[in-house]
Specification:
single chain, alpha+beta, Pnp Oxidase, Chain A, 7-stranded antiparallel β-sheet, 3-stranded antiparallel β-sheet, 12 strands
Length: 229
């Protein structure tokens, strides 16, 4: 099949676009506004974009009213947000916090989640989540859509603190992904969780493999070693 989005019909029962770019990590973002009101919301358009320094982004479309999402407004107003890992065990809580609710509704209370103080930022963490990134807001790139709701706010933040629960680590010091089972968005109403893992290294490139790992120290050391050699 072939179609041109917004120009020609796809003639399928459901729009296939989101099902083509999969799986997408869940950005379960906690923020707080200037009055101390907490907010928690999942975004399926989330990703890390750099590792030295570590930078992440989450992308939010507008509310059905055409106004900006509370997560975006709060991050911009306070300069901070937190990413919490969404796992299979927490899937129902993640789904509850996806609702479009008035700013005065506390999603932590709605989903019966425990607030855990952060170390360097004001937004709290989801205590039940095994991994958290405390983030300092960097900037928002606003992408215009065809309508008000289609407009997207891409929010960038630098990770300034990382929390990993002890039980989330294997004996070799690596994160036990199969134990945690992070969830990810597919298309339609579908999600997936990580239940299998395989490894590959890039042939002949220590620096490139350090980049895969995301280790700035190993990357720089490999570059220095190659230069001296």
């Amino acid at each position: 099949m072939y179609y041109e989005p917004g120009r020609t019909p796809h003639n399928l029962p459901h729009d296939p676009f989101k099902s083509c770019v999969v799986p997408r990590p869940i950005g379960w973002i906690s923020t707080v506004d200037s009055t101390g009101q907490h907010n928690l919301a999942p975004f399926s358009q989330f990703q890390n974009v750099n590792f030295d320094p570590p930078i992440v982004l989450f992308c939010a479309n507008q509310k059905t009213t055409g106004t900006r999402k509370d997560s975006v407004a709060n991050a911009e107003a306070t300069g901070e947000f937190v990413w919490n890992m969404a796992t299979y065990a927490l899937r129902e809580a993640v789904n509850l916090t996806a609702q479009e609710l008035p700013p005065e509704i506390d999603e932590f209370e709605l989903a019966k989640l425990t607030k855990l103080p952060s170390t360097l930022v004001r937004p709290v963490r989801v205590a039940e989540s095994p991994i958290h990134f405390e983030c300092r807001y960097l900037q928002t790139v606003r992408l215009p859509g065809k309508g008000a709701i289609g407009t997207a706010d891409v929010v960038f933040g630098q990770v300034i603190a990382i929390h990993i629960a002890d039980h989330a680590l294997r004996e070799d010091g690596c994160i036990d992904i199969l134990k945690l089972r992070p969830i990810a968005r597919l298309g339609y109403y579908d999600y997936t969780s990580i239940e299998s893992v395989f490894s590959m290294r890039i042939p002949g490139g220590e620096a490139m493999n350090a980049g895969l790992e995301g280790s700035a120290e190993k990357y720089q050391a490999a570059i220095v070693s190659r230069t001296k050699g």
